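Bug #77: duplicate submission created two jobs. Keeping one. Sequence:
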Amino acid sequence: MKYCFDALAIFGFAGLVGCANPEASKTEKTDSATVPNKGSYAQKVDEKQVELYELSNKNGLKISITNFGGRIVSFIVPDKAGKPTDIVLGYDSLNHFLHNKEAYFGALIGRYGNRIAKGSFQLEGKTYQLPINNAPNSLHGGPKGFHNQVWDAKLIDAQHLELQYMSKDGEEGYPGNLSAKVVYTLTDENALQIDYTATTDKATVVNLTNHAYFNLNGAGAATINDHLLQINADHFTPVDSTLIPIGVLAAVKGTAFDFTKAHAIGDSLGSKDIQMINGKGYDHNFALNRTAVPGLQTAATVYAPSTGIHMEVLTLEPGIQFYGGNFLDGTLVGKQAKPYAFRSAFCLETQHFPDAPNQKSFASTILLPGKTYSTQTVYKFSTK
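Kept job's structure:
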């Protein structure tokens, strides 16, 4: 029972009941890829039941999602030869998520995705203080943010999963009772559609996203630096040494941040640009080139030549955070006992801008009573 007790100490959960049976951590084969066994997730956290849910479509795509943090645990897509390939990093059991230092693999992020400077902001004349979990700032909603909560889950059918969570007034320092809902839909057009909605009974700030770590060569492959990335953004938000935006937009042209035309992620990693030094590589928000036409617009595309897998990211959001796996170091061992090496994954997190509650020139993230926060992001897959 020591393993269960450690989880209580590490995460401060009110109640973790019953460790998973070691035999249940075995994975189920899907040709060359594997999906975690549902039994390895079936236990209680904070007295709420955690499970693993599976979505699939007619074309062989298969996604496993747990209601612990709304995490995408595995995402299997066929490569150009038809070989099933798991393209997201994660773990084979819930216990691995509870005991490893990487808190965000595949998770829903809230109340506020990305960083808030010094964990503080003002709203309607009152100052709110958040936990400092990425010194000197607050990151991704705090240590008990949405990624470490058990969501209420409803498997609508084989292609739709609905998750709901009520974040109470004062949770992690945020004002208002916030009712959040996220619906994952796996379409027959080979797209994962994520719909986010939220309402509040008091003015608050909201910025929801998903933090999937992708490697289109397969989770555990050595690098993502050979992937060809294009980002539909002429500007990005430069950051200080603590990764807080300095309040201006900078042109990407002529810099290591110019992905307006597709090229390998690794091409400019040797740049001495102060922004690359501050981020230890890529860990920056890009201001998307949105047109006046409403609706989904392409934010980014990624292509892995070795597998032929192509991913398109479409969103309603004004920004996207490109993170290049700079803090992975090989010490985390994931699915199929594969270590996750330095820069062996990337994240493309659609979002409003970091620290927007403190930067009036950025689009507002304030949600008021009577209003509904609503946004959508789509990850669409093909091969070539």
